[in-house]
Automatic annotation (TrEMBL):
Keyword field: Carbohydrate metabolism, Lyase, Polysaccharide degradation, Secreted, Signal
Disordered: region residues: 356-410
Species classification: Bacteria, Bacillati, Actinomycetota, Actinomycetes, Kitasatosporales
Presence of keyword Lyase: yes
Record-given protein name: Pectate lyase
Biased composition (Pro residues): 371-387
Pfam families, sorted: Pectate_lyase_4
Gene Ontology terms, MF aspect: lyase activity
Family annotation (Gene3D superfamilies): Galactose-binding domain-like, Single-stranded right-handed beta-helix, Pectin lyase-like
Organism expressing this protein natively: Streptomyces halstedii
Domain Pectate lyase: 78-288
Database matches in PANTHER family: PECTATE LYASE 18-RELATED, PECTATE LYASE 21-RELATED
Family the entry assigns: Belongs to the polysaccharide lyase 1 family.
InterPro entries, sorted: Galactose-bd-like_sf (IPR008979), Pec_lyase (IPR002022), Pectin_lyas_fold (IPR012334), Pectin_lyase_fold/virulence (IPR011050), PEL (IPR045032)
Length: 509
């Protein structure tokens, strides 16, 4: 049985001094999204930057969060929503608009992209209201508490998941959050952090998951195997029955986490899943790694872990614990850089850094918590100096030279790094255009995953006059004298491999 642990969370009592007893959103000066940058698999596939470069607003109700999403120019217009206070069923209503798809009683990040939700001030507590990410990409959720979300009883929200992702989700970074329940399925709760139906490139970092029957899963069934590339690091799993996490297929990197009081099982790798399990500290727990409750085997690569008072059950047909002496049975390589804390210091460094309200402290890789520079913006992994202001390509038109099969001109201005335009050969041109003259001084050419570095030489032209504004080589930010024009063309004149332009962003300054 799961040991009872008293919850000691309290909702933030005071709300912000906004125009706001009703919780309406308030526009703030343009600001960076969240401090520090994404880590793990969320840095891949074009990276995860959330609302960086867009407008920043504050909200004290769930309805105001929905208003912020629905008030954007499009469903991909970048936005950072700073949240303070308690979000609950009483203040979370459906809001309609062309740039959103929301519902009452749940925070809906559905069919959208380029959004950051970050807790500020006295804290943000989502009380019995879950956060649902569906058919969305480039999302950051940071410094918030989500608690007591139910799938049965009253009130219900988000299928009982604190944070749930499903159906074609890409690039989500969840960081410094506290996710907790008050029991298991019999008490009406489900998972704290679930991914289903083609969710990929997700990182959960510096978070606390506790007091729940189920920590979280990757894949809803043995046939839901499209979910992959998940990183879990510097998290605390405390007083959890099982699913810490449950992996069905796919690849996961699990490092520097502290597990305490897992009563039934921990990392459950099954149905062909492969887990890289590095430098974790498992304490006072049972069956912390293996394949459980199925005969569909999973795999793991283990290194540097500490097993402190861990018990192991006997193997059986549907029960294959990795212990008592866990050994690797696969090999997993990861495409990003990372620094491991020694497992022996994981309990102390996680205790100092994980969860909401910890000042976004992180480890420096030598067991020493560090406070990030609050002025440090969330970087675009493909561009160390991304341009500021509004991406003028969102809502514009586009055309170009012959395109490769399956690609579209519109894919370069949809805010989605998962789609792209590619020429039919090794060279070609793509243009962004407007119905009226528009001033442009910078463009940002962002290459699609798997083709970074393919673009060689290029030139940028004013398509109205044919004048060449600048030329050079390699993708990234391109600057030229501010020019008023109705159409601007980026022409690739040489490449290695097949060039793929995921986003052709344009900026006034």
């Amino acid at each position: 049985m799961r040991r009872p642990v008293a919850l000691r969370l309290s909702a933030a009592g005071a709300t912000m001094a906004l125009a706001a007893a009703t919780g309406v959103l308030v526009a703030m000066p343009e600001a960076s999204a969240a401090t520090s940058g994404a880590t793990g698999y969320a840095t891949q596939n074009g990276g995860t930057t959330g609302g960086a470069g867009g407008q920043t607003v504050r909200a004290t109700t769930g309805t105001a969060i929905h208003q912020a999403l629905c008030g954007r120019a499009s469903s991909s217009t970048p936005i950072t929503i700073q949240v303070e206070g308690t979000i609950n069923h009483g203040n979370t209503e459906k809001v309609s608009g062309g740039s959103c798809n929301t519902a009452a009683g749940v925070i809906e990040l559905k069919q959208i992209s380029n959004v950051t939700i970050v807790g500020v001030g006295g804290g943000a507590v989502f009380d019995q209201v879950g956060i649902h990410v569906r058919e969305s990409s480039n999302i950051i959720i940071q410094n918030v508490t989500v608690k007591n979300v139910k799938k049965s009883g009253s009130p219900t929200s988000n299928g009982g998941d604190a944070i749930g992702m499903e159906k074609d989700v890409r690039n989500v970074w969840v960081d410094h959050t506290t996710l907790e329940a008050s029991g298991g399925e019999s008490e009406g709760f489900d998972g704290l952090f679930d991914m289903k139906n083609n969710t990929q490139y997700v990182t959960l970092s510096y978070s606390v998951l506790r007091n729940s029957g189920r920590g979280g899963l990757v894949g809803s069934s043995e046939s839901d195997l499209s979910n992959t590339f998940i990183t879990y690091h510097h998290n605390l799993y405390e007083n959890i029955d099982s699913r810490a996490p449950l992996l069905r297929g796919g690849v996961a990197h699990i490092y520097n986490n502290h597990y305490v009081g897992l009563s039934k099982s921990g990392i459950n790798s099954r149905a062909g899943a492969r887990a890289k399990v590095d430098n974790n500290y498992f304490e006072d727990s049972k069956d912390v790694l293996g394949t459980f409750y199925t005969d569909a085997a999973g795999y793991w690569q283990v290194s540097g872990n500490v097993f402190d008072n861990v018990t192991w059950s006997s193997p059986g047909t549907d029960n294959k614990p990795a212990g008592p002496n866990p050994q690797s049975n696969t090999s997993v390589s990861v495409p990003y850089s990372y620094t491991l804390d020694g497992a022996n210091c994981v309990p102390s460094v996680v205790r100092s850094t994980a969860g909401a309200g910890k000042g976004l402290k992180v480890s420096d890789g030598s067991c020493s918590p560090q406070t990030p520079d609050p002025t440090d913006p969330t970087p675009d992994p493909t561009d160390p100096n991304p341009p500021g202001g509004t991406n003028l390509s969102i809502g514009a038109g586009s055309d170009g030279s012959s395109k490769a099969s399956g690609t579209s001109y519109g894919d370069v201005r949809d805010g989605d790094m998962g789609t792209y335009w590619s020429p039919s050969g090794s060279t070609g041109s793509i243009s962004v255009k407007w119905s009226a003259a528009t001033s442009v001084s910078k463009i940002n050419i962002r290459e699609a995953a798997g083709s970074v570095g393919a673009i060689g030489s290029w030139k940028v032209s004013n398509a109205d006059t044919g004048a060449v504004l600048t030329s050079g080589s390699g993708a990234g930010v391109i600057t030229f004298p501010k020019t008023s024009l109705r159409k601007i063309t980026f022409e690739i004149t040489s490449s290695t491999g097949t060039p793929k332009v995921a986003e052709y962003e344009t900026y006034a300054g």
